[in-house]
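Researcher: Please predict.
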Amino acid sequence: MARYTGPVCRLCRREDSQLYLKGDRCFSTKCGYERRPYPPGQHGQGRRRRPSDYGQQLREKQKVKRMYGLMEKQFRGYYFRATRMKGVTGENLLQLLERRLDNAVLRMGFAASHAEARQLARHGHFTINGKRVDIPSYLVRVGDVIEVREKSRKVAKVVEAIAKSDRSPRPAWLEVDKDNFKGKVTALPARSDIAAEIDEQLIVELYSK
């Protein structure tokens, strides 16, 4: 599947929001968004124009899509799946995104960024209920136990991420046992579990046109 391979700090500046796409760097003084808090490009330091309603909807969709490391086709698929679920479409969409294996791994503290979590999952470093899973988009369910494989517990990225995992809040829908390299999904993610500033209604309005 296609993926973005350009400079990720540029994405934070484009969305005027810190998306925490580079792990440790985002928490240091080297953070690109903190050093240059204006849009990329030769006109970036100019005066920001007030976006139209469509512009606001588009930027919110782009922000969430980039936050979870998805391309347009995949993100749109999640949206239409959310529309077929019971409940509020916007909250259903965020719940589906949160339930991705790579996101759950990140929230548990076994990876430093979404890109790193996706790579680790793709390389088969995790098991779910004892079975090796190498699909980053796998949707976890209540009761699933996610564990770092025995052979992967000395992988530098995993060890470093766990050592620094306390700096990020742990969502209530996950339980984590860092000493045993595993965690459990105790509930479906609720809207209140998502700390990022997201206005999902703007995304719904955009796709409803």
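Model: The chain has two domains: 9-42+50-97+195-207, 100-187.
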